[in-house]
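Reply to dn_fold:

You asked what the input looked like. This is it:
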Amino acid sequence: MNKLFQKIFVKVFKKAVKKAVSTNNVVVPEVEPVIPSEEPAGNSKQAIWKFIIQTLISILTAILTALGATSCMGIR
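and this is what came back:
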């Protein structure tokens, strides 16, 4: 009985592998490459100021987080 199931399993496995190998019909969609523009979108002055403000906010947030963490440690 065990050999029977083994033979059936081998046949099914071989058939599945043969089918997987023979039907290689993969369709690759054609996608145009995206080329980034040299200038930021919109008003360049506005984009520069937005970047500067976001950077300052990030730096201040990091400093305040560090101060808050050290105040919780109880170091005097």
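The longest helix spans residues 44-73.
Hope that clears it up.
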